[in-house]
Predict the 3D structure of the following.
Amino acid sequence: MTRVRVTAPRSVTPNGTALNGGRSAAASLDAEEETDAGQLFVRSLIRSQLRLGLVVALGFLLIMLAFPLMLGLVPGLADSTIAGLPFDWVLLGAGIYPVIGLSAWLYVRTAARNEARYRDLAGDK
Amino acid sequence: MNPVVGVAAFAAVSLATAVIGFYGLRISRTTGDFYVASRTVKPWWNASAIGGEYLSAASFLGVAGLILLSGTDALWYPVGYTAGYLMLLLFVAAPLRRSGAYTIPDFTEARLDSRAVRRVTSLVVVLVGWLYIVPQLHGAALAIRITTGLPAWVGPVAVVAVVCITVVAGGMRSITFVQAFQYWLKLTAVAVPIVFMLLVLGGNSSPAEAAPAVNPTALAPSGPYQVISLLVALLFGTLGLPHVLVRFYTNPDGQSARRTTLIVLGLLSVFYLFPTAYGMIGRAYAPDLAQSGPADALVLLLPGRLVGGAAGDLLSALVVAGAFGAFLSTTSGLVVSLAGVISQDVFGGSVRGFRLAALISALVPLGIASMTESLALAGSVGLVFAFTASTICPVLLLGIWWRGLTDAGAIAGMVTGGVLCGSAMVAGSVLGATQTPSWLAQPAAWTVPAAFAVTILVSRATRGRVPRTMTRLMTRLHTPERPLATER
């Protein structure tokens, strides 16, 4: 795909403060954003990032939902103890944080991979 | 508690805050420095700063107090506070950074190409900020009364004074350093006493082994509706908090914004283990605090109770310092972000305007706090999350992920969510804690879907108003920056 660089003025707030996100000027606007093929890549990137976010969020919510269900459905579990501490306290007070961390780590890795794939597709090396 | 301990701890934290603030002033010169630290802050610094800013009175005092009062039900608060950052990471962090906007109103204006949307967003942001500062000041009033015996108003006034001095003098750059310092201060202040308390408790024959199961109050356990509604508020409220979002502009690019958020999640997870432990130990060894006296003071009083003598005084000084760190950091973070919004909208974005706006942002909530009574800190902050989730969250999420959002839809959604959630909050405070039905006490489960629905329906009805700049903006939000700033 041939790339033609088009420069466009950055959007500026009413009082004149530039909304420049610290990017180089060259990164402001690319032709691929305007062509149909470029937009196709962008749309598929957005879709895959949204899907990824939703999947991770849903997975996390299911695990969170499973915690009270587990306590309610498995008899005796709520009364059992780990190292002298009640099981439900350990589960909610400490056990859920590694799940959050793991979900976040998986997301960051996969999101970066999605972007790398987009860069390859869009010929942006 | 020895009153000198409280005063000394507060003075030490204020001094440290001011010194770091002035040190920061030497390196911040231009308006750009002043606002966003020129976006050169490293992820670790930035993550510590976000953690420092986010861990407010509600986290430091409120969580343990609420656990003391209502046991496992309250464990959802720290979980929600942390998981809110997961949602922020999944749906907001990188796109918002790439938008290049500094405040939420900047973002909505750029995305929807509308001045009216900007004004409504600014109004909501300022309202959220003020609502959020008030519980911090209530916490300060409580802490100063419990630890020094001075009149309660001294606490809020002192906090506002220190915040105004640091913010007006140093701006955002010094704030970043101050906030990063505050996270580690808070972690130390909450962790070290726990170690000593456990040593003391381990030495004694523990009188209450299965104590966390003991319920010191007659509060009924909350039903599934309350838990779900609370989680909706906390999960979706975090991603609209103005002082949290402002921090993301100090990241150099979208990918580093994600990495920063990942570190923040780790920092928060580690921190919240400790208030939970305080709550648990408090249920066993200080159940009287739940019946008489403020449960929110648990963290401040527990070390002195369990570890007596000079060691107890030292540990008390440490937790008091941490508590004031929490009030100072959250309040200054909010004041900086509110001042950013107010100064750009009203004073034209100059440094002088920023300073004036900072004063306004701090003094108004001081007035509100002095006129209102303190509720349970974690609960009142939970309501602010519900308000944010019903107003800013729909516009932000739909603006980032949905091409069909229009200015009319955004305004209608924010107004609907704000009016519904605001009236629930007012009705709740008029009826009082015991009379309020749970659907009014925890409104997020219906106000957030309502705000989303109105935003989508009105946007659909005004399809023609989708701005022409939309495609370009969506591309900017979601495509990685060039040149490659990060590894794959």
Notes: Chain A touches chain B through 58 residues (CB under 8 Å). Residues 36-73 of chain A form the longest helix (38 residues). Confidence is low (pLDDT under 50) at residues 1-32 of chain A. Residues 36-122 of chain A form one domain.
